[in-house]
Amino acid sequence: MKTTHYSAGIFTLSLLCLLSSIKVFSQQHQLKVAVFAPIYIDSAFLGNNFKFTNATALPKNMLPGLDFYNGITLAIDSLQAEHIQAEVLFYDTKDDAQPISNILKKSEMNEVSLIIASFTNNKEMKPLADFAATKKIPLISATFPNDGGIVNNPYFIILNSTLKTHCESLYKYLQRYYATENIVLLKRKGLIEDFIQTVFTQSGKTTPGIPLKIKPVQLNDTFTAQELLNNLDSNRKNVLICATMNEAFAVNTVKILSTASLQYTTTVVGMPNWENIKELDNTGCKDVDIFYSTPYLFSRADKEVNKFIATYNATFSANPSEWAFKGFEAMYHFTKIVLDYGELSTHFLSEKKYKLFNDFSIQPVYNKYNKLSINYFENKKLYFIKKNSGKIKLIN
Asked: Is a pLDDT exceeding 50 seen at residue 3?
């Protein structure tokens, strides 16, 4: 999903609303929801004066959180159209004058029944997760693919699946469709790369069926074409698991395979961040099958996606980024779930009757030291995407 660059003037009103929490009041509201997202509003205002009146674009660091906020507001409109009454509190996680720890002490948080958050780092997660556990209310982490070290907290829900889940799912996919091929796990030196390799190794020990025969190969960042091609077999299909989040390493790998496409038949398995690597669409990366997984699919073939795009465009005179979709989906779906099921809502998180864009398969992740204790819930539903020469196809 492409990120849109907006003119500063378009969102002046939205930012002014954010000087204080947005509150959608009713005389008898059924639910109170708290939303946390990174807006960096302090950098946009000097007192009450908007800094970017004459600017052509807002700073890039503001756009994801602001678009998430806009998605939230459109979800509120949809809920109100269905006569659902709620009070929604919105907080900027990058507001230096109002840190999360202080927000949680406010009396207005006492009656909150649902928290939706767009985190940017692990430190933001713990205070909110602890608060949710104490209050026994769901905390939906809508965008950050990390558990933040959270344990023994069945009220913490991760929608954007962790790297571990992606790797485990990719292993099962390869086991099902590519078990007899020449499989190479290509990596560079690094902690993330070691982690990815470990997950694939452990998956071979725990996944039912015959383990995959995977050849690990570590290369320097400046690896040559021949160093890579030495690991391929010209007589059968080659599957390269590119076990790194490093974009330059990924692009270099695909470019080399593209130049050798007549000599070798190859499929490259990428990591979740490959979805946003634009260079993979260039002609230098053509004729190579690339596979990656994603928990979020916003397809133009989906009528609900097109409906949302039209509404967003009419409201903000711009196209929505993935952050707007995520904010809208999280707010609408989980507000409906909590209203329906109340204290039992964590048992119905994947309820399909409120599906908008994506299916969710939100499952418990158990503590490895205590199999009866749930560390958190995580969305295990992943879509597998095939990309070749810039063309994208859903394959599951």
From this structure: no
